[in-house]
Amino acid sequence: MTDATRQRLFGIDRAFAHPATGILLAAIGIMLLVGLVTILVVVRHLDAERKKELWQRYIGWLVFVPLVAGPMLAGAFWAILVVALLSIFCYREYARATGLFREKLISFLVIVSILAVQFTVLDNWYLLFVALFPLGIGGIASLAILQDRPKGYIQRVALGTFAFALFGSCLGHLGFLANDVNYRPILIFVLAAVGLNDVGAFVTGRLTGGRRLCVNTSPNKTVAGAIGALVLTVLFVVPAGKLVFEGTELGDWSRLVLFGLALSVSCQFGDLMLSSIKRDLGLKDMDVLIPGHGGLLDRFDSLILVAPVAFHAINYFIGVGKDLQPCIFSGAR
Amino acid sequence: MSVQDFDLKPAADLGLTPLQRWRSPKRESGLVQTAGHLLFAFATRAFLRIWNRLEVHSQKNLPKEPPFIMVANHASHLDALVLAAPLPYAIRDRVFPLAAGDIFFQSAVVSALAAGFINAIPLWRKKSTPRALQELRERLVSEPCVFLLFPEGARTRDGNYLRFKPGVGMLVAGSDVPVVPCHLRGTFEACPAGRIFPTPHKIIINIGQPLRFPDVPNDREGWDVIIGQVEKEIRKLGEIEFVAHKSPHPARNPAQRIAI
Predict the structure, then answer these.
(1) DSSP string of B88-116?
(2) How many CA atoms lie within 13 A of B185 on its CB side?
(3) B10 contacts on A by Cβ (under 8 Å)
(4) Which has the closest alpha carbon to A61: A290, A301, A321?
(5) Count of domains in chain A?
(6) The pTM is what?
(7) What is the mean pLDDT of residues B29-35?
(8) Which residue of A has its CA nearest to B17?
(9) Is the pLDDT of residue B249 over 70?
(10) Do residue B11 and residue A283 have CB atoms under 8 angstroms apart?
(11) Within a 13 Å sphere around the CA of B64, how many CA atoms are in the beta-carbon half?
C-alpha cells in the first residue's frame, strides 16, 4: 500500500484540504440552524402529534449528520465501512419486511455478494466491481437451484437479486466515490443534495398541497412538492457543484443543472420505489430504529438510486479514482 | 395464464424494538441469530458429551418432524440444553425452550443472550395470559416448531419432583401435536440451583413414547388429564435404572431397578 493510499484511507489530517469540504459542512450546519429556528416558529401552530413528529425528524437529522460526516472526514476506509454497514442493515430491513429472511441460503448469498462488492470498493478494483453485478445475480440464481425446491424459486430468487441490485450494487456506487482523490467534498455534496431534496419535497408539499403525484403509491406526495424539490436541489447543486468540481468538465453550469435534475429525479424515484414496496407489503415503516423516521431504509431510500446516477455522472466527466492505486489489497490488475 | 401474486409475509415481530423482539413469543430468527443458535447448539452438545458424558436413550421415540413438545422434570439450568441436545441441527432454529421470563428476560443483556443463543421464549410465571398461551399454541402448529417445557415450572431444590402444572395441556389439548415425555437424570447433581459451573457428573436423558391428546377437551379438566398422564410417564421413565448408574436422590433412586 502506497503512502498516498494509506493517507486517503486513514489520514484525517487532510480532512479539510479541499476548500469545499469546510464550506459544505458549514452550509449544512447553517441549514440545521435555520431548520431549528423554523421549527421553533411554526411549532406553536401545530397539534401535539405533528409537533412530536417534527421534533423527532429534526433530532434524527442532528444525529445523522455527525454520524455520516464523521467517518467521511476520518478517511475513505471509514466512509466505505459506513456505506457497507448501511447496505447490510438496509438489506436486513428489506428481508424482514418481505419475509426473505426465512430463506437462509438466499439471504446468505445476498450478504456474501454485498460483502464482495464492498471489498472491490475498498480494494479500488473497478473491473471486478462492475463485473459483480451480473455475477452476483447469476450466482444467487444458480446456487438457489441447489436447494432442489422449484416451488417458490422465482419469488425467492427475484427478491434476492432485487435486494442485491439495490443494496449491493446501487449502494456500492456510493462507497466507490470514496476512491476519488476529492472523495470528502464529493460525498458530502451528494448526501447534502439528497437531504435537501427530501426536506424540499416535504416542506413544499406541505405548504402548497395541490395535485397528488402517485396517489396509490404515496398519497402525501404532491406534484408541487416534486417540483419544489427539483428546483431546490438544482439551486443547491449548481453553486455547490461549482465549488466541488471547479476546473473539471463537470464544473460547467449547464452540466451541473442537468446533474442536479438527475440527482433530484433519481432521489424522488428512490423514495417512491420504497413507498411502492411498503404499499405492496401493507407496511407504514420498514422498522422502528429511528424515531420519527422509521427504519434506515425509510431514511436512506432516496440514496439508493442516486448513488449509481451520481457515480456514473462523475465517473463519465472526471473519472473516479483513475490516478489512484488500484487493487490495493488484492494486488490484481 | 396470469402471473400469481408473490406470497410475502413480513416478520411476525416487525415493528418491535430489539428488547421487545427478544421478549416476544412472535420472534423470528434472521441469519445472524440462526448462526448463533447453531453455534451454541454445537458447543453445548460437545460440552455435554465431553464434560458430562451425556447419554441419550430411546432417541428413536423423537418425532421425525415438528411440531411437537418435549417435556421433562426440572432440576437445573442445564436441563433445556440437555433436552435440546438430541434434536437434529436442521430444526434447531425452530426449537424454542419456554423459559421463565422473570429469570431469563428481565435485563436486556440476559434477554439478548437467551434469545440469541438459546432461542428461548419467555413464559411469565405470574402474568401469562390465556392470549399468550393461545399465541404459542398457534405458532407451534403454523410454523411448525418444537417447544421444550418443564411442567414443574421451577427447579427442584432437593431432587424430588415438584407439583406438575397444567400449562402443557393448554398448548396441546384437542390437537394432534405429540408431547414427548423425557426424564433427565444427573443434571441435579451436575448443576443444581445456586451453582454456576457444572460438575462433570454423568447426565442421562431418557426419551419416552410420544403422547397425543386429540380427543381431550381444551378446558381445565382436559388440561388436568393431560398433565396427569405426562407426569405419570415422566415418573415411569425416571424409575428405569440404567446399568452403572447410582443416584443418591430418592425420586431418581427407586427400589425397583430395570437394566436396559
Answers:
(1) -GGGGGGEEEEEEHHHHSSSHHHHHHIII
(2) 29
(3) 96-99, 281, 283
(4) A290
(5) 1
(6) 0.86
(7) 91
(8) A288
(9) no
(10) no
(11) 0
